[in-house]
Write a structure and sequence with these properties.
Layout (H helix, E strand, L loop, with lengths): L1 E9 L6 H12 L11 E8 L4 H16 L5 E9 L1
Antiparallel strand pairs: 1-2, 1-3
Length: 82
């Protein structure tokens, strides 16, 4: 069994208004050394598959078909055997 930890973020070319608000709030709190904040999503998916290659293929498939909007988002993932 494997566990996929999936990180989804907006592409650099896409405006992130929520990240901008957080950055401005951090600045107002005294953290002037934070030039940018990007907000994303984190998902954990458990997979009952035999090997890591099959798990990676399945995670890519899920991300490409449902979990990620490829027009505006990028993703990375890591697999952990559990």
């Amino acid at each position: 069994m494997f566990q996929a930890k999936i990180y989804v973020t907006l592409r650099k070319s896409v405006l992130d208004p929520q990240g901008g608000v957080v950055r401005k709030s951090l600045y107002a709190m005294g953290y002037q050394n934070v030039p940018e904040v990007r907000i994303g999503r984190y998902m954990v998916v458990d997979l009952e598959v035999a090997d890591q290659d099959a798990a990676a293929k399945q995670v890519r498939d899920m991300c490409d078909k449902l979990l990620v909007n490829p027009v505006i988002e990028d993703y990375t993932f890591e697999l952990v055997e559990v």
